[in-house]
């Protein structure tokens, strides 16, 4: 698809790769902030990548009740989504939603409990947000992988995505099973990938304090691409030439964020 930012697929697969490299001292978690015009298909796209369960246990709206938000905080090891940061709400409702979104994004992957209006809202999963605009709180967006949906879907493509969502779920299931079956080998391979993609933090000394977090996010996405290519080669026997093309496309999509 020319419409779907390919980095979204990589971000959606990252939770299943993340724990191959993550330690108690290094956190490779992040949030995804997908923004674009109303009606562009953001919600449908996020649901394709994250709506894994028939009961919708891993997704909420920003207008959801506190109980739904608390339930979302119990999610682990798979992506979750939060929808509905839009321009059409009243200024009061919009301010309330922005405050909740900023709190969730700002505290996601942080240590300890995070209380917002009496509720623990610390999420331990990669969170996918959809919005019609970018919030102005810099400390919030600097914690996110910012992805713009610059053009909307055509009706035919959107219908195809909805009708064939089961194909993506089957792919995710096979990918997870492959990781579980080969866990020890892949953990060793992930350590090699971690070394190959390690940023030179000394080059950025004295710059933005949160840059290390940004570079770790990019590193985690790069490792996921490498692991995905490993899977495609081993599971589907895709030729090296085609894998190199996919690798470059995914890396370019990461760099564009």
Helix content range: 40-55%
Strand line-up of the largest beta sheet: 2-3-6-1-7
How many strands?
7
CA-to-CA gap between the ends? 18 Å
Strand content: 5-15%
Low-confidence parts:
none
Largest sheet descriptor: 5 strands, parallel
Rg (CA only): 18 Å
What overall geometry do the principal axes of the alpha carbons give? globular
Structural class call reads alpha/beta
Q: What oligomeric arrangement do these chains adopt? A: single chain
Count of alpha and pi helical runs: 10
Order of helices and strands: HEHEHEHEEEHEHHHHH
Question: What brief labels describe this structure?
Answer:
257 residues; alpha/beta; 5-stranded parallel sheet; two-stranded antiparallel sheet; 11% strand; globular
Characterize the structure shown.
By secondary structure, the protein is α/β, with parallel strands linked by helices. It has 10 helices and 7 strands. It has helices spanning 7-18, 42-50, 66-72, 91-107, 138-141, 155-163, 165-181, 183-196, 211-236, 240-255; strands at 31-35, 59-61, 80-85, 115-116, 119-120, 127-131, 144-148. A hairpin with a 2-residue loop joins strand 4 and strand 5. The longest helix is centred in the last third of the chain and has 26 residues, at 211-236.
